[in-house]
Write a structure and sequence with these properties.
5-stranded mixed sheet; alpha/beta; 5 strands; Nucleotidyltransferase, domain 5; 7 helices
Length: 175
Amino acid sequence: MNTDDSHKQKCHIAVDVETTGLSFRYGRVVEIAAVTLTHDGSAPEFHSLINPGVSVPVVVQRVHGITNAVLCGQPEPEEIFCRFRDFVGDNTLVAHNAMFDMGFLRAEFIRLGMNITNPSVCTLKMSRDLIPGLADYKLATVYRHLFGELPQEPQHRALTDARMAGRIWLELMKR
């Protein structure tokens, strides 16, 4: 994890979370990533697995590949979300389907007696507005449309998906 202080200036930071399910009311975050967005490609990043103390359903494990065994021994939510809050500061957060990611982040912060009030930007909504006619607006579909091929890193993992959302945002901002 890079904790370079250059991200402390006002900027946009792409975020992504992997979870134990689809509902932030019942699910928990098991992986989080944040990527400071710069036009030159050199940017501080934050990434961690998180052991929320609950089991990851097998059907969800098949999506992101994060198993209960992988989470064994990983840091607990309080440690990671305090470091995450320090990393993102009060900067604007960028996410593909921001309602999902921000909902989970808010729920985790509430569980810890903390708050996250960062403004957010949704690349899913931007994509629907700026790229009409795609078959769907999944992160991979939009990325492939804009850049031709997907990154080699595994998808449905927080760091890869945050990097993809960030690159999409940078490209859509040019339009």
